[in-house]
Amino acid sequence: MSFEKAIALAVYFIAMLLIGLFAYRKSTSDLSEYMLGGRKVSPQVTALSAGASDMSGWMLMGLPGAMFVMGYETLWIAFGLLLGAWANYQLVAPRLRVYTQAANDALTLPQFFGERFGRKHSALQITSGIVIILFFTLYTSSGLVAGGKLFQATLGLDYSLGIIITVGVVVAYTLLGGFLAVSLTDFVQGCIMFIALVLVPVVAYQYFNSGAEVLSETANTIPDFSSMLTQVTVLGVISSLAWGLGYFGQPHIIVRFMAIRSVTEISTARNIGMSWMLVTIVGAVATGLIGVAYVSKFNLQLDDPETIFIVFSEILFHPYISGFLMAAILAAIMSTISSQLLVSSSSLTEDIFVALTKKEMSQKQAVLMGRACVAIVAIVATLLAMDSTNSILNLVSNAWAGFGAAFGPLVLLSLFWPKMTYHGAIAGIISGAVTVLLWSHVPLLADGATLSSLVYEIVPGFIVATLSIIVVSRLSAQPNEQVLITFDQVQQELALAR
Predict the structure, then answer these.
(1) Backbone dihedral angles phi then psi of residue 41, each to the nearest 5 degrees
(2) Minimal CA–CA distance to 276: which of 92, 82, 28?
(3) What's the protein's topology in the membrane (predicted)?
């Protein structure tokens, strides 16, 4: 174990815990503060928090590793993510910020769905909460897998011990400071990720005479750049671009829009967030591309392509810098895990426990229950992550598709279509989630493969959910007058904000 790297990581861990302590003193007096920071988060923190919680360990490990497996087809995923994030800021962010506050100050996405149709503690809210717990437990486990691989590859620790250290620190500051701690740590972690994803590809590139040499060495391993246009199938392009559809339904991302202090500041958050995302995605793809060339040129043995960022940080930098870069990976991992744990705990508390028991809790009891639920979800995700053969990108893609299909069409239509009904909403959630699970896990093809080998499961899931919402809404009773009045009020407030 490198002493310098251990020191750098220890400093990082201490900083995160101190932020948690600060947030504990500032923003955990009631459930609104614990879950949404009292809706007083700045646009700068909103932007980097949304980006950091979005771009988890797969940004520094999964995406560069995909270049080794998929080649230049990975660029289609990058394009899809950029388009999806931009559309999310444009379409969802302003409307959701206004609507959730108008809907009796809804603190969670399922709570908003229930209030949207005047059905508090309804089957819709409970169903939404169950879907969140299901897919977030899977999503959280992907981050823990990345943490286990990181500690195993860099410090020589046991894979399981690496997972325990990762989840231990995240749970500690999330339990302490709630949403404010998660947002502030995400801001710091986003800055670290930004520096790392600029530094690593730039330094690695210095080992080549020119970009032409990089492409030449890359061609020894994967097809040349033209294959992105000539060899990829139409379904392959659709599958990769469809990653962008997932943004509309990611609770841990869009909850940031609910917490920003003013709808007028969303444009500032969008400009900061999209600039950050563009640089970091280019850096991640460049790390993978240069990594392929570096492995080819120097005949480097690379057992796991998802560790190329780790390998670069080990062999190209001083141990103290290497420790900082390890902290960048941890930042990416922890920022997403903490967000997912907090959203999961809020769903367990508000959308399942309270909705099922109809038991009203004091603010102090609600915060305590939220903290207990953070620990429960963390334990289950830890057990799932103990299998070291798990692929980070595969775990993320399944969870991303599940949320995108179950919630994406519902979020969009809730905000833009006043005639959507309660029963249409339930039909959309269930049909989207079930389609994704069947598409990705049931071996329906002749060779035993799943349908996801043909097209990414978010595509059929999103289509089925959208059609289900529209058809069932047309066939069921229309929303009551109060729902339509609230919708009109939101429209008026948005018009004033512009």
Answers:
(1) -85, 135
(2) 82
(3) Multi-pass membrane protein
Burial 370-395 (b: 16+ CB within 10 A, else e): bbebbeebbeebbebbeeeebbbbeb
Q: Which CATH number describes the domain made up of 3-389?
A: 1.20.1730.10
**Which positions ≥6 away from 361 have C-beta within 8 Å?**
354, 369
Burial readout 45-58 (b: 16 or more C-beta within 10 A, e: otherwise) = bbbbbbbbbbbbbb
pLDDT of 72-106, one tens digit each?
Answer: 888 888 899 999 999 999 999 999 988 888 877 77
Q: What is the pTM of this model?
A: 0.81
Tell me the C-alpha distance between 93 and 85, whole Å: 10
Task: Give every CB contact of residue 217 below 8 A, 6+ residues apart in sequence.
Answer: 208, 292, 293, 294, 296, 297
> Closest Cα to residue 172, out of 369, 16, 49, 335?
16
Residue 280 parent element (H or E): helix 266-297
State pLDDT tens for residues 311-339.
888 888 888 888 888 777 777 777 677 77
Coil, strand or helix at 359: coil
Spatial distance between the Cα atoms of 222 and 67, rounded to a whole number of angstroms: 8
> CA neighbours within 13 Å on the CB side: how many for 293?
24
Average pLDDT over residues 429-437: 93
Domain ranges within the chain, ordered by starting residue: 3-389
In the chain, what's the furthest Cα-to-Cα distance? 69
